[in-house]
Amino acid sequence: MATLAVAVVLLSACGNSTDGLQGGELFERSCAVCHRSDGSGSGNRSTIGVGSNAVNLTDDQIAGVIRAGPGVMPPFQRLTEDQVDSLVSYVRSLQEEGG
Fold first, then answer.
1. Alpha carbon distance 70, 93 (integer Å)
2. 48-65: per-residue pLDDT in tens?
């Protein structure tokens, strides 16, 4: 049952249009459903803000995670390079500000 719920959430997140979105708007539309608006996530696997292991990743590594979608995270291959860069910058801002 939990697997089905995760699949529904991921599919609904993947179905959202990201055309023209950047940074925070893009994060809210495509990422916050799992990572929460402040990056605190719901468990270690999806925590990307302050105190998470994601603070130790390089910008290129974060961009690779966004594109590849490891584990249960879907790949976001449809995003432009500018959108990926804006997401990386936004994630960094969450890590600095603590949400």
1. 22
2. 998 888 999 999 999 999
Tokens of 19: 């055309």
Q: How far apart are CA 15 and CA 30, in angstroms?
A: 9
pLDDT in tens, 14-34: 445 788 889 999 999 999 999
Name the residue among 39, 29, 75, 10 with its Cα closest to residue 2. Answer: 10
Q: What domains does the chain contain, in order, with CATH numbers?
A: 2-97 (1.10.760.10)
Query: For 32-47, what is each residue's pLDDT tens digit?
Result: 999 999 999 986 668 9
d(CA 63, CA 88): 6
**Mean pLDDT across the chain:** 83
Return phi, psi of residue 15, to 5°: -80, -10
Where does 1-99 show beta strands of DSSP type E?
Answer: none
